[in-house]
């Protein structure tokens, strides 16, 4: 299923385009559901990973909540029919209109990242005479062992309330008439393959919970964020991430108090493997050191390799010649517009189709129109 590329049908579609394997998405969602249901965990889908309508429709059918990071994401989730009561809203820089919108729509919870933000939420809530539920996003200073640009839970990162400031923030909240402290929130980073990072997070959560208990504060929700990684090297062999062990770590690791719920915010692990960028080879150019396969998809269509030096597996899905090495590059006027160096591919020529794998998360949502390019369209396995 995860290798379903109807190359013949692709030939009549203008390239580059996103191609989603809807069967794989379905299987992934089933796995998330069955593994999280074992422990009554609550899963919010991190809509920043992919906000494509058809993908969102499928996710909604599985009864997930949504994790948003902008007012426009909140609006999108509501427009797509997700219940407001499943929406959580994080972000270090929520604008006033975004806070107002969240309050007006009665979303489940604001994950607040500073006392300055709390002051503004309280001011708006007071004006509206409406109580607002918040969770404190605490920066746990836990190493995620991932790329530095997608690490979020260290002291030097801008996210969350520093542990040193937790007491001060709690004291401030108790003086705010319109703020209800629902819980605590964490997110240590993304594309985490070493599950021991999550065990370390559990330990930190337990320490912090003990502190709240000593203070006599009961917390309803413990939100541990997202971050579970996917196998970019072997998408066909490992299309579905290890949700079983991931959820088990939290069920064994976190000391839950009676009536408490554990919440998750999963993005990449849900949608990453079902998406591919399909692109056509325009030219093969012999370079001094290497051959370039120049494709019509570029960093404007999938920015991860250029931005994070991220690896995405590239497959030539129309040739079965003998293997040769190529630098696979796009047409954009930037040297960083490259999808990979010295990639072994079957002999490649003009007109061949390439699949850039594992592009379902942070692919289509990060498209830009630099060089005034058109945004790539999306196609779906159940419609071809
Ligand atoms: N919760 C919060 C508060 C987050 O900041 C994020 C991701 C998530 C949940 C979802 O994390 P996931 O399960 O997808 O790892 N554009 C980058 C990734 C940025 C992640 C930002 N935050 C990339 O392409 O790798």
Automatic annotation (TrEMBL):
Transmembrane spans: none
Orn/DAP/Arg decarboxylase 2 C-terminal domain ranges (all copies): 18-360
Residue(s) carrying N6-(pyridoxal phosphate)lysine: 48
Recorded metabolic or biological pathway in which this protein acts: Amino-acid biosynthesis; L-lysine biosynthesis via DAP pathway; L-lysine from DL-2,6-diaminopimelate: step 1/1
Catalytic function, reaction form: meso-2,6-diaminopimelate + H(+) = L-lysine + CO2
Cofactor(s) the protein requires to work: pyridoxal 5'-phosphate
Binding site for substrate: 268, 304, 308, 334, 362
PROSITE patterns given in the database record: ODR_DC_2_1, ODR_DC_2_2
Annotated InterPro entries: Ala_racemase/Decarboxylase_C, DAP_deCOOHase_LysA, De-COase2_C, De-COase2_CS, De-COase2_N, De-COase2_pyr-phos_BS, Orn/DAP/Arg_de-COase, PLP-binding_barrel
Location of the Orn/DAP/Arg decarboxylase 2 N-terminal domain: 27-271
Gene Ontology biological-process entries: lysine biosynthetic process via diaminopimelate
Role according to the record: Specifically catalyzes the decarboxylation of meso-diaminopimelate (meso-DAP) to L-lysine.
Subunit structure: Homodimer.
Protein name: Diaminopimelate decarboxylase
Underlying gene: lysA
């Amino acid at each position: 299923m995860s290798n379903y590329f109807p190359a013949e049908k692709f030939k009549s579609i203008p390239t580059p385009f996103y191609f989603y394997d809807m069967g794989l998405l379905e299987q992934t969602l089933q796995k998330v559901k069955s593994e999280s249901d074992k422990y009554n965990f609550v899963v919010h889908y991190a809509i920043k990973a992919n906000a494509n309508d058809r993908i969102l429709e499928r996710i909604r059918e599985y009864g997930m909540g949504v994790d948003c990071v902008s007012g426009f994401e909140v609006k999108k989730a509501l427009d797509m029919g997700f219940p407001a009561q499943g929406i959580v809203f994080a972000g270090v820089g929520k604008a006033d209109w975004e806070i107002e919108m969240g309050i007006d729509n009665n979303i489940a919870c604001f994950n607040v990242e500073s006392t300055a933000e709390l002051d503004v939420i309280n001011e708006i809530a007071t004006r509206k005479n409406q109580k607002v539920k918040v969770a404190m996003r605490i920066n746990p200073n836990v190493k995620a062992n991932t790329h530095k640009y997608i690490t979020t839970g260290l002291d030097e990162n801008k996210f969350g309330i520093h542990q040193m400031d937790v007491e001060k923030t709690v004291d401030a909240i108790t003086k705010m008439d319109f703020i209800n402290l629902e819980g605590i929130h964490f997110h240590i980073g993304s594309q985490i393959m070493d599950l021991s990072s999550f065990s370390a997070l559990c330990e930190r959560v337990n320490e912090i919970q003990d502190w709240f208990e000593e203070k006599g504060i009961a917390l309803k929700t413990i939100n541990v964020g997202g971050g579970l990684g996917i196998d970019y090297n072997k998408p066909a062999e490992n299309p579905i991430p290890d949700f079983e062990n991931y959820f088990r770590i939290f069920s064994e690791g976190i000391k839950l108090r009676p009536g408490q719920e554990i919440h998750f915010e999963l993005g990449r692990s849900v949608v990453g493997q079902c998406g591919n960028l399909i692109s056509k080879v325009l030219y093969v150019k012999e370079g001094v050191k290497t051959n370039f396969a120049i494709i019509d998809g570029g960093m404007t269509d999938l920015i991860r390799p250029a931005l994070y030096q991220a690896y995405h597996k590239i497959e030539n899905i129309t040739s079965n010649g003998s293997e040769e090495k190529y630098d696979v590059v796009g047409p954009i006027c930037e040297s960083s517009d490259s999808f990979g160096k010295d990639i072994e591919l079957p002999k490649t020529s003009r007109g061949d189709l390439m699949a850039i794998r594992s592009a379902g998360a942070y692919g289509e949502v990060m498209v830009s129109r630099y060089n005034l390019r058109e945004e790539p369209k999306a196609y779906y396995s159940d419609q071809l």
